[in-house]
Specification:
By secondary structure, the protein is mainly alpha-helical. It folds into two domains: 96 residues; 156 residues, no CATH class. It is 50% helix and 4% strand. A four-stranded mixed sheet has the order 1-2-3-4, sandwiched between helices. Strand 2, helix 9 and strand 3 form a beta-alpha-beta unit. The longest helix is centred in the N-terminal third of the chain and has 30 residues. The chain is globular, with a radius of gyration of 20 Å.
Length: 273
């Protein structure tokens, strides 16, 4: 029960962080006389369009401040100096995406696994090197759950059905294929793969049980952690409630998806000698 409470608390924490980010962005645009629009807010925050419409607190703040802007002389963010600063920031973030997961983020994810009392062996590996290392690490640790994540991005206005248009989806696909060649049983080795805007269909076809991102949106870094924790705590006798798991991630079915998967938890009978 304590593990379930921690997972619920983790989901609430993610939701609160996203809500705070969205409201701060809306209030900042209002203070600086920038026309509030969902299109601009998604660029600023990385959150999905649906989040701004479906979160009642965020929607209320957005609609109230948009109404107050009626009749005001507003800046055009595309031609304003602030917009140029935003574009510079976006380019900076895109540059960071070309690198592997920062170590502070890696350490943060490792701490979350520890908080949920899930034993893990975490490695900081460049996306381009994952396929070369995955079998070696599988043989060393013999895990039941494998999480392959980092950073990814779909090129702007690019065809989402072409793997070369993604920053690291092909790297994740190669790693998933190597892992699935090592263990073909999808209940014996559960693979969670992908990152922001990853090629969802390709990752599932390559052998992943869960993957991102069906709508090619940015996911939360803790989404794979959340999925792994629920699978780890589901009895081996049962299949996980995939729909329920996905609906508790940051952007639900827009950000993550998966296939029927059996849990891995086993009880000891009797518990005492």
């Amino acid at each position: 029960m304590q593990k379930h409470d921690k997972m619920v608390a983790l989901a609430k924490e993610k939701s609160a962080e996203m809500t705070e980010t969205a409201i701060t962005a809306i209030e900042t645009m209002y203070r600086k006389n920038i026309k509030i629009s969902v299109a601009e807010l998604t660029k600023l925050t990385g959150l999905s369009r649906g989040f701004f419409y479906n979160n009642p607190n965020v929607k209320q703040v957005m609609m109230e401040l948009k109404e107050k802007q009626q009749g005001m002389i507003l800046r055009n963010p595309k031609s304003d100096a602030i917009a140029k600063a935003q574009e510079a920031r976006i380019k900076s973030l895109e540059q960071k995406l070309s690198d592997s997961v920062p170590k502070n983020e890696y350490e943060s994810l490792q701490k979350k696994y520890e908080e949920l009392k899930i034993r893990t062996d975490c490695y900081y590996i460049k996306e381009s090197e994952m396929a070369d290392r995955v079998v070696e690490l599988l043989e060393k640790h013999k895990p039941q759950i494998l999480v392959i994540t980092g950073h990814d991005a779909l090129r702007k206005n690019a065809d989402k059905s072409i793997g070369q248009n993604y920053q690291h989806s092909l790297d994740y696909m190669a790693a998933v294929k190597k892992a699935r060649q090592y263990q073909g049983d999808k209940d014996a080795l559960i693979i969670i793969a992908g990152a922001c805007q990853s090629y969802y269909e390709m990752l599932l076809a390559s052998g992943a049980n869960f993957a991102s991102s069906p709508k090619r949106i940015n996911i939360h870094a803790l989404d794979p952690v959340y999925i792994a924790s629920l699978v780890a705590n589901e009895s081996v006798r049962n299949y996980c409630d995939v729909e329920d798991i996905i609906n508790h991630t940051s952007h639900k079915q827009s950000g993550m998806g998966g296939i029927d998967t059996r849990g891995v938890a086993r009880k000891i009978y009797p518990t005492r000698g």
